[in-house]
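Key idea: predict the complex, not the pieces.
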Amino acid sequence: MNNTIETILSHRSIRKFTDRAIDPKQLETIIQAGLAASSSSLLQVVSIIRVTDKSKRALLAEYAGNQAYVESAAEFLVFCIDYQRHAAINPKVKADFTELTLIGAVDSGIMAQNCLLAAESMGLGGVYIGGLRNNAQHVDELLSLPQNTAILFGLCLGEPDQSPELKPRLPAHIVLHENSYEPLNLGDIEQYDETMKAYYSSRGSNQKQTSWSQQVTGKLSGESRPHMLSYLNKKGLAKR
Amino acid sequence: MNNTIETILSHRSIRKFTDRAIDPKQLETIIQAGLAASSSSLLQVVSIIRVTDKSKRALLAEYAGNQAYVESAAEFLVFCIDYQRHAAINPKVKADFTELTLIGAVDSGIMAQNCLLAAESMGLGGVYIGGLRNNAQHVDELLSLPQNTAILFGLCLGEPDQSPELKPRLPAHIVLHENSYEPLNLGDIEQYDETMKAYYSSRGSNQKQTSWSQQVTGKLSGESRPHMLSYLNKKGLAKR
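Result:
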């Protein structure tokens, strides 16, 4: 197994960081790693906002649902869909398609994962912060995003001050299909639920008695950030 | 510079492959790399459909806009948003939110990039195929996707039979902002356009006389897959 695969397979989300800063050269490499990512039709529709302002960090931590590590991480990067560049180059550009928001979301994930893996390969750690979308409009205003841009998620980066266990994932035979979608075998989920029950009840911190099925049903039984559609439309994205 | 960063920074999209198959153990590692990726709230909303059926490959190549490498690559993986698992576990699950489609798109990008980097670290190469969305409904039917699932993009993987130049990206000072969105300086784009003109006119294959601004304006002046919104809504996603 090579180092890249080792880095990928040993991923853990880090939510507790030392107060050590990230070396500027390391940060530069992390950003270059993001820029090297594939980009759909080379549109390059992602902007990254590095938040160094302490008061903005404190507000972002609050907007994300009081996630303290958004404030305490050495670096916090906010990934945004950005068609404003293209509109500035030529006002004929039409950004108001769901398709373009999909491109922005997929390409942001690809780019951010390059950044996170580059950081992890240097012994740093991080965690994605989708919670920024809890208050998308407030985050948008705090970062002064123009029309044709929208916030997607944040990425905390820093020196890990914790070493969490690997979190078990759905096994390949559930996620991977061949040639056609293969309907879920509920027995497979029962097995995974047992694995996750054991994980949740025995892990080092934040132990709980629950299964994956209970967790996701709880998450998905209610409305999921229903304001996101009007937010995206207001920014000139995701319509048609 | 460590091997992971070297792998990330030397990415090139590969569109010409030898006929050598990918070793099953290598493919297993590539899939495990994908599974190790971060998942929003551990919802695990991505399914991968590995297409080995030759006739399906031929159709997918056509649906993607006659991209022959979709048929010729050793492996072709289709990444899909999948809330059908969650709905099968509990019918109370509501998947029809734009937010959930965003999660699916971001998490698919993160997962697929782990797969691509794992492959690249082994000396393999690949390219993302967003063109599948040109005919989303046909691809969906070909792969028998159920409700609450939607196709996003494909990933070709195989042994490279070409060695393209690195494609210049927008420089960091354009993509990276600090604390607030910094409006585009058109002078910076003029410089990048010169870089891209030189790249397009001198690269080994498919040389052309164009700039980045001309390219993206062409791509974005018309409608961008306007059928995607109705496709996603039909699958029970992206509304509200």
